[in-house]
Amino acid sequence: MDVSDLAQGVVVENHGAIFDVEIDGRMVRCFLRGRLKKDKRTKVGLIAAGDRVKVRLLEYGRGVVEEVLPRESDVSRAAAGSIPLEQTLAANVDQAVIVFAAAEPAADLFMLDRFLVMMRAARLNQIICINKCDLADADSLRARLAVYEGIGHRVLFTSAIRGDGLAALRDAMKDRRSVICGPSGVGKSSLLNAIAPGVALRIGEVGAVTHKGRHTTSSVALVPLPFGGWVADTPGLRQAGFWQVSIGHVIEAFTDLHPYLGRCEFSNCTHRRQKGCALEAAARAGRIDPRRLRSFLEMGGR
């Protein structure tokens, strides 16, 4: 087969066995060449939204993916289940918008820390977006998130209902390739609809009894933004399982602890109630957030 006969496109959505690929402004429904399926024993989905691919065009708007081009970046997690499998949420993005809710459900900062480590491992620019700010006291909310602003993270406080922070979020995503991620029920799709009316993403409601979000986005899809760029809208995640995340990545993400790492009295300090621990001493003195220290240790930091 002559490679010059292949068209290059971008995967817009993965439907499992078939893929929607945008080629020169038109959508082509594609399936995967059999020889490319060799990695399916280690991965959930061989192609992700955002992948650049080469396609052999067939009749009736169909095509065959013959080649997946190298990725600039990818956001992957360990898929749920007993067998370790990689699940790539999005490929070729340059920024992560990590969305948590101020309330209903309230932000789990331990899980937020895990997302930050995942995105640091993927080498992506990170924006923390706290949505549903209309449901919480502004001062206490900002105090709770102050530690992240203190270590240099950009934190946006938004309300898809009231309009708070939407202009700042729109500006942050303009002309960028973003992945929007976070737990279920935090209003990711509502935010996208608010900053880009007409995107028409499905919106779900938070369960009144469990206060846990229902999954409304079942697959990852690329959404073009009218003000430039595109975003990969991901399903709400109940867990952020690490995939190829090292201790080094964890340490990198906890810059607030860096001044005290390596300063313990004993080189093999576990930072768990040990004599001469510089991290515990800093936490007791209020120089670092004790919760952040617990989060660091839970992720295997040392």
Q: What's the structural blueprint in terms of helices and strands?
A:
Layout: E1 7-14, E2 18-23, E3 26-32, E4 43-44, E5 52-57, E6 62-68, E7 74-78, E8 86-91, E9 95-101, H1 109-121, E10 125-131, H2 138-150, E11 154-157, H3 166-173, E12 176-181, H4 188-195, E13 221-224, E14 229-233, H5 247-253, H6 278-284, H7 290-298
Helix pairs in contact: 1-5
Characteristics:
302 residues, alpha/beta, OB fold (Dihydrolipoamide Acetyltransferase, E2P), Rossmann fold, 3 domains, six-stranded mixed sheet, five-stranded mixed β-barrel, 26% strand, globular
Low-confidence stretches: 202-218
Largest sheet: 6 strands, mixed
**Computed CA radius of gyration, to the nearest angstrom:** 21 Å
**CATH homologous superfamily annotation of the largest domain:** P-loop containing nucleotide triphosphate hydrolases
Strand content: 25-35%
The overall pLDDT average reads: 86
Q: Element order, helices and strands?
A: EEEEEEEEEHEHEHEHEEHHH
Helix vs. strand class: alpha/beta
CATH architecture call of the largest domain: 3-Layer(aba) Sandwich
CA distance, first residue to last residue: 53 Å
- Determine the CATH topology of the largest domain: Rossmann fold
Strands ordered across the widest β-sheet: 11-10-9-12-14-13
Description:
The chain is of the alpha/beta class and about 300 residues long. The chain folds into three domains: about 5-70, Beta Barrel (OB fold (Dihydrolipoamide Acetyltransferase, E2P)); about 75-85 and about 90-235, Rossmann fold; about 245-300, no CATH class. Helices cover about 20% and strands about 25% of the residues. The chain has seven helices and 14 strands. The strands form three sheets. The chain has a six-stranded mixed β-sheet with strand order 11-10-9-12-14-13, with helices on both faces. It has a five-stranded mixed barrel with strand order 1-2-3-6-5. Helix 1 packs across helix 5. The radius of gyration is 21 Å and the shape is globular. The N and C termini lie far apart (about 55 Å). About 35% of the residues are buried. The model is unreliable at about 200-220 (pLDDT under 50).
